Each structure stands twice: as C-alpha cells, then as structure tokens.
C-alpha cells in the first residue's frame, strides 16, 4: 500500500474516532488496528493527521474511547516487547503506537482530571501468561515504561543481534543480558558496536516517547517543594527497571562518544547524513531528566573527599533510590572520567571550532543540555569534580563556557544559558585548584567580541565578566553577585594579571562606587565589598607578579579615597540619587579603555524579535547559594558555620530576585532590617538613610589598600619627578621589584564562598531544563500549544 493510501486510511480512523459518540469496545480489533496495523506514517505525519483540537474533543466528549486508544497502544508495545518483534510488520506496529502515544500524552497531562489515568490499573490488562492475576495490578504507566525499556534492547530492532542464524533460533528478549548490548563503548563497556542507522532511528523514536512520558513535570506549576518526584522518572530509575544500568550506560556513552566532525575528516558531514545526532540529542535530554534530583533534601549521593582530593572514601553511602543518580555518583575509574570529560569538552567546543573553520564540522545545538549534564556530574560525583580540576583539561570546559556567556550576554532569550554557565563556574571556583589552573597562558585564539590581550585564562575570565556587566542586558543584574564571587574565590591564586584585566577590575570598582549606584538599591554596596576583597587577596597573597594591578590601583587611587570619604548625610544621599535620574545608563561604558576587539569576532547580538523563550523561577541570593569556608595554612578548608559568624560585614546579602523584577532590594530584603536602617516612604519604596549608609561604610575593608597607597604613592611620585617620567614601563619595573613585606596589615584568612546545594537551585534547574527541552523539540513540536504550567512561553 502506498504511503498516500496509508495516510488516508489513518486519517479516516482518526475521523471515526472523533465522530463516534458511543464507546468502542476494547475487543473491537478491526477498529483499533486501523491506527497502527496497516499504516506506515512518520512521526511528522501523525502530528499532522491528529490535530490538537480533535484530541481534546475526544478527551472531553468520549473519554472512554481515548482511554481505550491509549490502553490498546500500550498493549501493542507490551506484546511487541514480549515477542521480540521479529517481523517487519511487528516493528512497524511498534513505531506507529510509539508515535501515536507521543502525540496524545501531552493532552492527557494538561488535564488534571486525566493525570491519574496512566497510574490506574486496567482490568484484564495483565501481561499474558499464567500469572494473569498478579500482573493485573500493574498501572498502565508501568507497563508502558517496562515495554519501552525492553524494546530499547531488542535484537535486530534497536541493537545488533548476537545470533548468526535465522528467526527460528531468535533470541528470547527476556533471557538476553542487556549489559552485553550497551549501545556504545565508554564507561563500563569496551566494545563499540557497528553503527546501524535503522537502530539509531528506532532508538530515537522510543526515547522521544520516554521523554514525553517524563514531561508530565511540565504541567505542574513550580513549587518551592522540589522534592515532589516525577512518578514516571521514579519508576523508570528504580530497581523495577531491569535495564536501568545498561540504559544509563548506553545514554551516557552515546553522548560522550559522539564526534560531530565525522571521524576526524573535516567537511565530512556535508557528504553523509548524520543519523547519530538526533539520537545523541534525545539521549542527552532523557539523561538530564532522569537526573533531576534535589541533592539538598536527601542524604547526599556524593562522596566527599578533602578539598585536595586525596583521601577518597572507599565505602560509598547507599545512595539515592534513583538508580541513574546512584550510578552517576559511583563512576570512579580514571579512564571513565577521562572519556566523559574529553567527550563533553569536545562537544562544548564544537561551536567555537565553527568560528575559525566555518562549516568544517557539523554545528551541534545541544550545548545547554551538555552544560546541565556537566553540572549534574560535578554536583553528584565529587570524585569527578576533583578529576576535572586536577588537570588543565578544566580549561577546555572553561573556554567554551566563557564563549557562550560572552556571546549570549545581549540576548534576552538566553538568560538561562547565562545562569547555568555562571553556576558551573561558581561551583568550580569553590576549589583551590581552579584558581591555580587559571594561571595557564591563554593562547587559543577563538574569535570573541572582547579586547585583544596577552595573558592567562584568568585575564580572559575577568575581561568576559567585565563585558557581561557593562554591556549585557538588564536581566543579568541578579548575576553580578555570582560573577564577582567567582572572581573573589580565585583571586588569592592569581599570579599575574595583565594590564587589560587590571584596568577592567578598576573600571568596575569605579562604576559600582558612584554615589547614585550605591544609594539606589539596598544591596548594591555588596559589589564594592566583593571587589575590595579581590584587591586585598591579590595584594596580600600575590603581590609579587601583580605589578599591573598595583599600578592600576595607584593610578585610580582617587576611587579608594572617595569611598573612604563617602558622604553619609541626608543631603548628600539625595544629591547622589538626583544624579541617577540624569544618567539612566546602568554602568558607564566610557573610560574603560575598550580597545580593539579580536579579529573575526562578531558583536554579541540581541535576540531576534519574536524569538520564543521560557520563563525561569528566581534563583536564590548569593548568601543562599554559597557557604563560607576558610582556607587554612595547609590548604584545607573548613566550613564556617553560619552561627559562628557575626552578621556578614556586608550587611545582609541580597536574596532572590525574580526574572521579571527590576533589580531593587524591595522584594528581597528582610522587613525588619529595612525598617531599622532606612525609612520606608509612603509609597512603600525603600529609601536610603544616613544610618544605613554608616552601617556598611564603617565595614569597608580599605585598610590594606590605604596602607599600600601610603607607602607606594610617594615613591612613585618621587621617581616621576626625579626622572621626569611619564613612561609607565619604568614605574612598572620599579613596582615589580618593590616589596611591602612587613608594611601591610597581617594577612586576613582566605575566605571562599562555596556553592551549596539547595532546593531553590534544584527548582531553577528543573524549570530551565524543561524550558530548553520544550523549545528544542520543534520537529515534531511535541508540547507546542499545550497548557504547560512549569513556565510561561514568552516572545522577545
């Protein structure tokens, strides 16, 4: 039968279903078989021939028919999994049912009355065989998930058969050990099966159905209680799924082994269609959804070593019930870590390779899913985190992240990408090794829209962060705290900043210490505290080698003097705020010596009008995101318990600011502090008061810098006068050989703000991840135009 006929017959069946007012019996196979038995329709056909309005109409007007259709389709999948689908006809039926369920499920999830349907048992729906009665108790959802997992290891359908002979000795699908059929070499599996594009296509369809099953999470509003688990994922990742281990390994290996360049031959992708890529994308999405797990509420699945990563526990804790999280947290062989890290770094770098060898490799689009996966690996497996930081391979992750951050900074539709990139860097910056690694010279010349500089990876990081702060869009303001916390965390280890980076840091201080900025929101002064902490760390711990920064501090000494003499009377506060009305620019871009951008780079572009984006929940403030640890002399860290700290010197760090709000402290500041330190005017707006300014001005950590200026400024001025110098190289030479030993205050202990898991970020990751999956699945558009509740779909 031609494909046109088969489409026509399928459409006729759909019309019959939508027009029947009477329930059709489940036993009426002649009717139900029309949907899958003799049709060959692609998933795109199914979406076109089963319109949303008709699915909703059947759901409202003849619910029993919709229920029977779902039940019969699941029954076909169960039968296929039982028989091992050896014939072409059986495989076609499986794929048709798969596509039909992918089409219908979102409409079941969007209606709260239907949500329990798949978790109810269907009378007589046992899995054939003698033990009919026990199996009756299986909810439809469980039967569906178990059938799909069996089908994912079905010889000659989704995996290579190991038998040589014909059908009569076909492998019994229930006796095969699926661990011998893992899809790709890598973690825990050495053999790379012969690529087979038909198997890849079939796996992709089944994974699409799985992802659709898991997507029930999109139809529940975000809740502060992130522990409410997704029942589909919970069952799928439990011991009930006998393929959990080989499936986890298959998904991980398929993603990490993928090489879009095409076997190392540039331009190869122009000659061959790549059947792997859709499978890799689907695998990455299924993997991150199964790992959606709030590690802050549970006994942590991670094994903590010391910060240096020497003493690792051999005895793992039992770990979470979610087997995928459990397996991920237990990976421990060096070669497995190497395989994962190399794979993720290769894929994240793919868009960068594009820029200097255009079209040489196929450009991949799933970098956001990869970043979520990398985050989960580091968050759930501390041994992996230490492995990443142990070698300079961490820089192969850092550079692509900085590239994405810089590229997305002006694009409102990519706020989520900005957040996850910054979160990953915050997590890495909590470990000393990250700061140390940043001293490696930066020689890769990826064209980026930033000033040309010669220096290290630390310089690159600071220059990109400066670019985000001074020329990103408004929505990024809540990230400023995080960006500067990262710089504070690495600052004690930075051996030598370039002049470009040193000037950028001082330009930020200049911008953040203007009176209008300090007085215009309740937490703006924290940014000044962070920057002063950076300067103090470098001066106290890395003075030798940082003559560029010292010189920049001397040149901009008036900024520090102004801060020390910040006016606190009401009149001055009002005057400072008036200035704001005249300069609406968030931060002046002038006097930052921009310099020429790198050759071949394109400026960061805003989103095209009409671009779809999904809303995000607010992220917790930096005080909730991190906990303070003190670095001891021997390099180990000890956590500073909150109660042992008096209130932090910065006053109260800001709490969450939602995506939609302007960056004012109004929503986020605890009530009592606001009343005590500032007057709330009649309009309910926060206004700064002299007491409030005094409360933090007195804590500004300026002693070290003032002492440095006191000692060095007269010496530098003397050189200039004596030698009639205007040339900075002489002054730099003098500063390089200078020393402040014994002249500075006693070095303060190094404070690191380490990321800590919390339910706020767990919920943020859930909304971000599903938003990415929603927007990336456009062909077919699985969730488009359904009533999702986890986020809003907005147009830029």
Automatic annotation (TrEMBL):
<protein>
    <submittedName>
        <fullName>HID1 domain containing</fullName>
    </submittedName>
</protein>
<dbReference type="GO" id="GO:0005829">
    <property type="term" value="C:cytosol"/>
</dbReference>
<dbReference type="GO" id="GO:0061792">
    <property type="term" value="P:secretory granule maturation"/>
</dbReference>
<dbReference type="Pfam" id="PF12722">
    <property type="entry name" value="Hid1"/>
</dbReference>
<dbReference type="InterPro" id="IPR026705">
    <property type="entry name" value="Hid-1/Ecm30"/>
</dbReference>
<dbReference type="GO" id="GO:0005797">
    <property type="term" value="C:Golgi medial cisterna"/>
</dbReference>
<dbReference type="GO" id="GO:0030070">
    <property type="term" value="P:insulin processing"/>
</dbReference>
<dbReference type="GO" id="GO:0042144">
    <property type="term" value="P:vacuole fusion, non-autophagic"/>
</dbReference>
<dbReference type="GO" id="GO:0005881">
    <property type="term" value="C:cytoplasmic microtubule"/>
</dbReference>
<feature type="region of interest" description="Disordered">
    <location>
        <begin position="571"/>
        <end position="687"/>
    </location>
</feature>
<dbReference type="GO" id="GO:0000138">
    <property type="term" value="C:Golgi trans cisterna"/>
</dbReference>
<dbReference type="GO" id="GO:0098548">
    <property type="term" value="C:cytoplasmic side of Golgi membrane"/>
</dbReference>
<dbReference type="GO" id="GO:0009749">
    <property type="term" value="P:response to glucose"/>
</dbReference>
């Amino acid at each position: 039968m031609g494909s046109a006929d088969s489409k026509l017959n399928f459409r006729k069946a759909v019309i019959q279903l939508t027009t029947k007012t009477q329930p059709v019996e489940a036993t009426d196979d002649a009717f139900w078989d029309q949907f899958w038995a003799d049709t060959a329709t692609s998933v795109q056909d199914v979406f076109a021939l089963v319109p949303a309005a008709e699915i909703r109409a059947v759901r409202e007007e003849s619910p029993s028919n919709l229920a029977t259709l779902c039940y019969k389709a699941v029954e076909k999948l169960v039968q296929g999994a039982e028989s091992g689908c050896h014939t072409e006809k059986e495989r076609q039926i499986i794929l048709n049912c798969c596509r039909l369920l992918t089409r219908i499920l979102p409409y079941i999830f969007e209606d709260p009355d239907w949500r329990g349907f798949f978790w109810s048992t269907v009378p007589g729906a046992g899995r054939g065989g003698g033990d009919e009665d026990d199996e009756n108790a299986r909810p439809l959802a469980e039967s569906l998930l178990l059938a799909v997992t069996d089908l994912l290891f079905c010889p000659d359908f989704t995996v290579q058969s190991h038998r040589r002979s014909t059908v009569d000795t076909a492998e019994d699908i229930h006796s095969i050990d699926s661990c011998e059929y893992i899809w790709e070499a890598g973690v825990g599996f050495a053999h790379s099966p012969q690529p087979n594009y038909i198997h890849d296509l079939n796996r992709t369809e089944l994974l699409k159905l799985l992802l659709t099953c898991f997507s029930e999470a999109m139809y529940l509003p975000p809740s502060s209680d992130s522990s409410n688990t997704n029942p589909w994922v919970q069952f799928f990742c439990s011991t009930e799924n006998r393929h959990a281990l080989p499936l986890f390994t298959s998904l991980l290996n398929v993603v990490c082994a993928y090489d879009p360049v095409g076997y190392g031959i540039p331009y190869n992708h122009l000659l061959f269609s790549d059947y792997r890529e859709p499978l890799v994308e689907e695998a990455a999405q299924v993997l991150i959804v199964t790992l959606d797990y709030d590690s802050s509420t549970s006994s942590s699945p991670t094994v903590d070593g010391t910060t240096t990563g020497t003493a690792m526990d051999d005895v793992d804790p039992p770990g979470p019930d979610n087997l995928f999280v459990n397996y991920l947290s237990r990976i421990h062989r060096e070669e497995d870590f190497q395989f994962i890290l190399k794979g993720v770094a290769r894929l994240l770098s793919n868009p960068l390779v594009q820029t200097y060898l255009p079209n040489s490799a196929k450009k991949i689009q799933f970098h956001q899913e990869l970043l979520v996966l990398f985050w989960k690996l580091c968050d759930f497996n501390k041994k992996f985190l230490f492995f990443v930081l142990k070698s300079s391979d961490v820089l192969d992750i850092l550079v692509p992240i900085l590239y994405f951050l810089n590229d997305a900074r002006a694009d409102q539709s990519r706020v989520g990408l900005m957040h996850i990139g910054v979160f990953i860097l915050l997590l890495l910056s909590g470990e000393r090794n990250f700061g140390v690694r940043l001293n490696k010279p930066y020689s890769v010349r990826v064209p980026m829209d930033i000033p040309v500089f010669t220096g290290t990876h630390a310089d690159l990081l600071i220059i990109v962060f400066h670019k985000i702060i001074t020329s990103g869009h408004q929505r990024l303001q809540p990230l400023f705290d995080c960006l500067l916390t990262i710089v504070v965390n690495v600052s004690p280890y930075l051996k030598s900043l370039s002049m470009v980076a040193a000037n950028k840091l001082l330009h930020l201080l200049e911008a953040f210490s203007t009176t209008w900025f300090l007085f215009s929101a309740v937490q703006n002064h924290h940014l000044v505290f962070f920057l002063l902490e950076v300067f103090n760390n470098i001066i106290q711990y890395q003075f030798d080698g940082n003559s560029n920064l010292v010189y920049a501090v001397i040149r901009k000494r008036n900024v520090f003097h102004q801060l020390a003499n910040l006016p606190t009377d009401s009149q001055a506060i009002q005057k400072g705020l008036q200035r704001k009305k005249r300069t609406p620019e968030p931060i002046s871009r002038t006097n930052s010596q921009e310099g020429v951008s790198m050759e071949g780079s394109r400026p960061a572009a805003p989103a095209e009008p009409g671009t779809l984006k999904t809303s995000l929940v607010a992220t917790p403030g930096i005080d909730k995101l991190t906990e303070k640890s003190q670095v001891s002399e021997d390099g180990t860290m000890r956590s500073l318990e909150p109660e042992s700290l008096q209130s932090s010197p910065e006053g109260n760090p800001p709490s969450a600011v939602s995506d939609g709000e302007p960056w004012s402290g109004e929503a986020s500041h605890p009530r009592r502090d606001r009343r005590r330190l500032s007057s709330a005017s009649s309009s309910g707006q926060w206004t700064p008061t002299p007491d409030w300014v005094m409360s933090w001005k007195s804590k500004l950590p300026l002693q070290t810098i003032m002492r440095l200026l006191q000692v060095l400024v007269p010496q530098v001025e003397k050189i200039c006068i004596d030698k009639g110098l205007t040339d900075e190289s002489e002054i730099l030479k003098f500063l390089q050989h200078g020393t402040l030993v014994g002249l500075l205050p006693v070095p303060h202990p190094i404070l690191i703000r380490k990321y800590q898991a919390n339910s706020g970020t767990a919920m943020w990751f859930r909304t971000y991840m599903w938003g990415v999956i929603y927007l990336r699945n456009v062909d077919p558009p699985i969730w488009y135009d359904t009533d999702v509740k986890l986020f809003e779909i907005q147009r830029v």
